[in-house]
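step=encode ok
step=design start
structure_in=
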């Protein structure tokens, strides 16, 4: 399986091929922007039925699994999520797994 991705279509395809259902759960999360650092992206979802939307980043692992980076409700604005994502990508670039 490909370890880095350039588009969300590639992420979704790899995740689906691995049997994942992340993009079908929780009311189909909204993806913001494209893949950063080959593995990271931002999604938003309604917070359990409320009107509030919280932004999170996820990572597409070599297995096709998707994991939250931080707490689900860790960012209440897209701008904050984007700033944190930039930090995560910069750190990730120095720590190849």
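sequence_out=
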């Amino acid at each position: 399986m490909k370890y880095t991705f350039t588009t969300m279509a590639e992420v979704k395809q790899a995740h689906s091929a691995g049997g994942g259902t992340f993009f079908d759960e929780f009311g189909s999360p909204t993806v913001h922007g494209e893949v950063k650092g080959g593995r990271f992206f931002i999604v938003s979802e309604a917070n359990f039925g409320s009107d509030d939307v919280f932004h999170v980043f996820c990572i597409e692992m070599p297995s096709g699994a998707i994991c939250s980076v931080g707490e689900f409700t860790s960012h209440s604005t897209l701008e904050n999520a984007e700033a944190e994502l930039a930090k995560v990508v910069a750190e990730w670039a120095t720590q190849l797994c």
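step=design ok
step=annotate ok -> The beta strands are 30-36, 40-46, 53-60, 66-69.
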